[in-house]
Amino acid sequence: DVVMTQSPLSLSVTLGQPASISCRSSQSLIHGDGNTYLSWFHQRPGQSPRRLIHKISNRDSGVPDRFSGSGSGTDFTLKISRVEAEDVGIYSCMQGRRWPYTFGQGTKLEIK
Amino acid sequence: QLVESGGGLVQPGGSLRLSCAASGFTFSTYWMSWVRQAPGKGLEWVANMKPDGGEIDYVDSVKGRFTISRDNAKNSLYLQMNSLRAGDTAVYYCARDSGERSVDVWGQGTTVTVSS
């Protein structure tokens, strides 16, 4: 299975400051069709996950532009340009390159 | 929208059948999945099913015990879970595969607890 490793596992950020989460895969996520199937999800306590970004950098509808995704191959990053209170929760990366699709352990973001 | 039902408390070795009712989109054209989250743990993709049911994938830990199925006429997805173990305790989410090997719509989840 493709192992997804996130760092850090927890993050304490002051409101208005940037945040960055790294995700590394044990194998390249570049599919034979040329796409890289790496997504990011956000989950607030007691809620279902919500997708923020797919295929490395494509923001989903309604996702604020302070969220951005980047990377290639095996190394990916989610950045929040200015953290807001509603951003607290757990962020998870996910690969769709190879079955079984797998998620990272999750990174818990809290406000300092 | 996806709405799950059927979760509950079951003894080890028992069975449960989860259901997911879909609305607001053309169910019969999407891959559908079950994803679970054990207490305090990360997300785990459990099973995946092609729109016509012609292709199914399972994570190794549930192969031979869980069966995913769908009824496109009823806009419904199911997960039959047999020989349940304590390790299957989790919130089970019904999820729509966006077509980009990812999930773009999640249900609210249904809780399965396997305990004696």
Outline the secondary-structure elements.
The complex is a heterodimer of chains A (112) and B (116).
Chain A: E1 4-7, E2 10-13, E3 19-25, E4 38-43, E5 50-54, E6 58-59, E7 67-72, E8 75-80, E9 89-95, E10 102-103, E11 107-111
Parallel strand pairs in A: 2-11
Antiparallel strand pairs in A: 1-3, 3-8, 4-5, 4-9, 5-6, 7-8, 9-10, 9-11
Chain B: E1 2-5, E2 8-10, E3 16-22, E4 32-37, E5 43-49, E6 56-58, E7 66-71, E8 76-81, E9 90-97, E10 103-106, E11 110-114
Shape of chain A: globular
The low-confidence runs of chain B, each spanning 5 or more residues with pLDDT under 50, are none
How many distinct beta strands of chain A? Answer: 11
What's the story with the biggest beta sheet of chain B? Answer: 7 strands, mixed
Structural Rg of chain A: 13 Å
Beta strand % of chain A: over 45%
Average pLDDT level of chain B: 96
Largest interface: A-B, 24 and 19 residues
Q: How does the helix and strand content of chain A classify structurally?
A: mainly beta
The proportion of residues forming helix of chain B, as a percent range, comes to under 10%
Can you give a write-up of this model?
The complex is a heterodimer of chains A (112) and B (116). Chain A is an all-beta fold and 112 residues long. Chain A has no helices and eleven strands. In chain A, strand 7 and strand 8 form a beta hairpin. In chain A, 37% of the residues are buried. The mean pLDDT of chain A is 96. Chain B is an all-beta fold and 116 residues long. The radius of gyration of chain B is 13 Å and the shape is globular. The A-B interface holds A 31, 35, 37, 39, 41, 48-51, 54-55, 60, 92, 94, 96-97, 99-106 and B 42-45, 48, 57, 59-60, 93, 98, 100-104, 106-109.
